Amino acid sequence: MRPSSVSSPPGMGEKKSAVPERCNSSMSIAWVLLALSSTLISALVNILDSHFMSRRMPGWKAYVLICDLFALPVSIVMLFIFPLPHGVGFAPVAAVCASAMISSLSVVLVLEIMRKEDVAAVSPITSTAPVFVAILAMLFLGEDLALHQWLAISAVVTGAIVISFRWDTRGGAHLHIRPFLILMAAAVLIAVSNVFNKYGLGYMSYWNSATLIFLFSAILFIGICFRPKVLREIASLRDRTGTVGFTLANQIAAMAATVLAYKAVEAGPVALASTIFNSKPLFIFAFSALAARIAPGFLIHEKSSLKLLAVRAGATMLVVAGLVIMLV
Questions:
Q1: Which of 82, 246, 263, 288 could form a disulfide with 120 if both were Cys (CB 3.0 to 4.6 A apart)?
Q2: Could you tell me the pLDDT band of residue 304, with boundaries at 50, 70 and 90?
């Protein structure tokens, strides 16, 4: 989970001007590959986030501190590469910083849940954020939701609830309420963060916004986490060099996924690219199932039968399908 991944690539929901047919044919494969690559990398990043939180890190503060000690100098360099537009004003900058602060809180909630929950159950629930964006737009911006969008919202919520059920050995099921509510709260925070960021994007480029989010989040988290206790926890990590190295590699991969997503939106149809991005929970489900088979101790896995796996897969597909329908 990364603060920069909270905001969508620029142009989401906007129509592009027509381009020559031969350009479309030559670029069609390129944007699909870019979108798929971004989604696959982002899914792998989430898998590794779960591994670090459940298997290697003493808590979210140690993990976030390692990430943001790397992100801070990177964001400062980005600030020179992508300076803010002249006369941008205070309000847009404040909106993007508020977006960063809110998304940072969502990151903390998700990382905490990842310590004890299967990432394949975490991802679909946090992916419900577009539902709350649509509802916020309806409540505060006067936007109308069509019937198919309400049906899509129902599908997403139903899938998220089913994923949150736990089955016992006798086949009984109960809703795992605490993780569900925390993850739904994180999804709401992501949605609110996106609304603030969308306002800021009206006055600056995507990369200006991403730079501010990286910078503000890094300063905020370092200010919170740079404490003697946290430094001692990092120093006492088992296989400290390898853990820190893999954590930084994961952070670089998250940045690469953001760049690829931006390029995919630039090169191809926004709605179709978004469809691929929204399929990430399915890839996480597949990667998690594969990890359970070839490296059982790599992630947290709930003991489950083929029937339960089929239910989880179906619920995940319901969430993804709902998110895709919302874009129509």
A1: 288
A2: low
What's the whole-number mean pLDDT along residues 275-296? 92
Q: Contact 182/113 with Cβ under 8 angstroms?
A: yes
Q: What is the CA radius of gyration of the chain?
A: 20
- Cβ-count burial 116-153 (b if 16+ within 10 Å, e if not): ebbbbbbbbbbbbbbbbbbebbeeeeeeeeeeebeebb
pLDDT (average), residues 309-315: 89
CA–CA distances in Å: residue 237 to residues 46, 53, 58, 150, 305:
21, 12, 8, 47, 35
**If pLDDT is split at 50, 70 and 90, which confidence band does 19 have?**
very low
DSSP state of 238: T
d(CA 132, CA 206): 22
Residue 259 contacts residue 206 (beta carbons within 8 Å): no
Residue 269 in tokens: 């149809």
Q: Cβ neighbours of residue 146 under 8 Å, at least 6 residues apart? A: none
Question: 61 vs 56, 170, 220, CA distance in Å?
Answer: 13, 39, 12
Cα four-point dihedral sign 276, 154, 190, 67: negative
Residues above pLDDT 90, as percent of the chain: 69
Taking residues 293-313, report their average pLDDT. 83
* Neighbouring C-alpha atoms within 13 Å toward the C-beta of 19: 13
DSSP character at residue 5: G
Which residue is associated with the tokens 């990364």?
2
The number of CA neighbours under 13 Å toward the Cβ of 87 is 0
**Contact indicator for 218, 2 with CB cutoff of 8 Å:** no
Counting runs of H as helices and runs of E as strands, what totals does the chain give? 13, 2
98: enclosing H helix or E strand: helix 90-114
Nearest CA-CA partner of 257 in 272, 241, 276, 230: 276
